[in-house]
Fold this protein.
Amino acid sequence: MVHWIEGQTGLWEIVIGLEIHAQVTSRAKLFSGAATSFGRAPNTQVALFDAAFPGMLPVINAKCIEQAVRTGLGLNAHINKYSVFARKNYFYADLPAGYQISQHELPIVGPGLVAIDLSDGTSRTIRIERLHLEQDAGKSLHDRHPTLSFIDLNRAGVALMEIVSQPDMHSSEEAAAYVRKLRSILRYLGSCDGNMQEGSLRCDVNVSVRRPDEGFRTRCEIKNINSVRFMIQAIEYEAHRHVRVYESGGRIEQETRLFEASSGKTRAMRSKEMVHDYRYFPDPDLPPLTLDDAFIEDIRTSLPELPDQKKSRFINIYGLPAYAAGILVEDRETAEYYETVAKGRDPKTVANWVMTSLFGALHRSGREISDSPISADHLGQLIDLIGDGTISSHIAKSVFESMLETGQEPLAIVTAKGLKQVTDSKVIEQAIDAVMRRHPDKVALYRGGQVKLLGWFIGQVMKATDGKANPTKLSTLLKERLTES
Amino acid sequence: MTALVDLTLADARIGLNRGDFTSVELTEAHLRAIERRRFLNAFITETPEVAIAQAHASDRRRRAGQVGAMEGLPIAIKDIFCTEGLLTTAASHILDGFRPPYEATVSARLRAAGAVTLGKTNMDEFAMGSSNMTSYYGSVLNPWQRHSAPEIKLVPGGSSGGSAAAVAARLCLAAMGTDTGGSIRQPSSYCGIVGLKPTYGRCSRWGLIAFASSLDQAGPMTRTIRDSALMLGAMSGYDSKDSTSAQVPVPDFEEALTGEIHGLKVGVPCEYRSEGLSPEIVALWDQGIRWLKAAGAESIEISLPHTQYALATYYILAPAEASSNLARYDGVRYGLRKAGNSSLNDMYMQTRAAGFGQEVQRRVLIGTYVLSAGYYDAYYLKAQKVRTLIIRDFQQAFKTVDVILTPTAPTPAFAMGEQMDDPIIMYLNDIFTVPTSLAGLPGLSVPAGLSPEGLPLGLQIIGRPFDEQTVLKVGGVLETAACFTQRPSLAAAT
Amino acid sequence: MSLDKATVRAIAFLARLDISEEAIEPLIEELSAILHWTEKLQEVDTTNVEPASYVSVSKLYWREDFIDCGGYAETVLTNAPESTKGFFLVPKVVD
């Protein structure tokens, strides 16, 4: 399902490639023993190597290698058993050595694939070109002083996995689905926490447009986007900008642009950056990285069930529709929560509760499923109480709200509040009779043909029983009573 | 009774053990010598208080029965090694005021072995040079003088010129140097001392200010072969903080000095014997071959066919690595910063232009160029391939010989001011030492004779990877045969 | 290879070295001469020869993932020409 831009002179296809920088989950940095935590006092997580002191040398962190291989396997990618670290040379205040240790011609991971699901139910496969390990740069703060920038090197040297896609995406929706899927996979693997607000996952987006069946035109790179929402806006704006320029006879310059959240637009960088010549060459301080089969196999066998596999399983074993399955597996914790509740219960009912009531509640309170006030066991118990008739599904909703507030188990709430369902026919009949006695006019109308009043009667009897009457029994008995004369 | 400053490391070790003198006395004697011969400008930073304190500590340790391999022996350290709390400059203005909060592994090892630090020696800026004339702290004077023209100031060679002059002039018992393309061997030859560049990876580079990472090596500069073996043993060893450090055991180098070279095969590369080679050098080389044969070795002519390309290869690769290694000198975290700049780029450009000397700037520019887009393949990549061929030349040669004998330098020490007009002429001084560096092999320079003008000439012994033992052993044989006892005129016995 | 002024200026900017007008002419000559001298490498047949990127015999050493550095901002900043409140200071970068 291609999304075309309708320009004034015809259709245009958007071409999108993404370069994602994912911070590796590890205690220490890629080439030094300094810590990687976020948000610490400036320059307190800096080894002398990270600050590029004279004579300092890199030593690679085994965990980072493992995480890169793990990620490569999770992306169905080829693992390169021989790879080389190269220096990418350029000057910037947050790059103390004047070069970044990265990988150039021989990255640790080669081509791979990511499957994405779109809202119209279709799926696409996006090709990954490569994944390589590199150092993150420090942070420059430009807003603390009128003429000076403040430099904090805490982040300098943290391991990044740069994941480069082929330009296979053709809409902002596809790009968003790709980022979400990638993030989901990384979190499943535990190789990156995917926290975009904290900067653990950042996107550089390459956008160009072309006529159908044309080759590639010039692309622009939009750097450092840290939310999916902004990425969508940026792609839409940029693609339309290209179309406008071409249709007015202009040309697109290959350039790096920045996204301005306030206006929803992209703009060229002010400093006309000279064309970067990174002068890559193999880093003479680091011998090549060689991996043996045993190492790779160990990681492969320790991989968790990944989103795609889990989704298939949810469709096959739980009979869930693809869309619901996709939502439930996006996050590993959510999938595990769901499976805990679904054990021995009707999967579709559980899916409903989780996706509607629980997600709604979590979203309202800004929480993650990992700190859900309602545990999987308790939710399961609530569903059981409906299933065995202890409460009606109507009452269950208010029990659910109480569970959110108090974190108590459902039976305790039902008991304390006396919310058990009334199923005794005699009691229900008594309530029905009371209502009928109070509203003879309505009874007459009903018997006269206004059968829609049944709903009104149900409401009245429910009120009289504090909502506890079993709806099915109530409906049956009410109809009987009303049609009697 | 030998003056304290005329002792060798080995003899001083004996004297200290016997209690003939203390480390404090030994150190003070050297501090006085340093003062007397300050005109040589061999030191950038003298550290007398530190030295005396260390000497006292050493004597205390000795009294308690703790005696390390270098216990109480006063040495000098080339100012390219980061020494904790002490000014470290790499002879550059751009490192003004830099006091490292850490100690280089090799100097820490020597300190842990009990050595006493007399000071930081002068050198060519960032180790780039063969004359010690590119130092921000001024040139170093070679303590040797020409018979016929003693007023002409001679260079000590470089880049470890200060260390070489200090050892030759008896300002220290030994010194640490570094060698990238010949920077230990060539000044050792010019100053009549023993200089060893170990196999690449034998000594750690952690804390050594990097010039060309795939070539830099720390090594001992001493007056005798035994001293070299002693000091090498104390400096060497695997360091996990240096990913290029070799995980090989450290043998007892002194034990190898048996003098026994019967049946040893000595290679003599025909390509080193070019037409331009001066007669005195040729004569010395032939003499060296005869000495070794007299001791039972066999001399075999070998070919190292890519020798003529070694300098060009080196002068592409070393500047390339340097251009990247020196990018960190930018005025932000240490050293010189040119104030009054409104933009970051201006600050970088002004700071680096003011902080780096001309030779350093030249090499950074060459290095930047040969790595740049469009030129990488023709220059850098090409040079890396030729380097492979040079390495193969040596591998091939070592199938038939055990060591290779060559002159160390094409000439004796030249005069200050000579060779300054054309950088390339200066580069040609490294012609015999560079191939060994490119191949990562151990290379030793031994003083073997004097030129007609009375200036020292050295012979170079090149060995298989990690075979410093054989190299030192052969060096010992040459040392015995050459009987080089002359002293520089500016360091006459007192 | 003879360099022209524009190339030398471009290389100098890549290397962040300010070269004055007076210095540039002699520098162009020197650099051109050095590069020309190194061009003799073009004579060598290097078909099928691998570049010698690694002289070291070592296999890459992998360190364990634990924290053993950092926590000393003062030391990191101690040699800085300009710093404040734990940050390095540089002229502001605008982009």
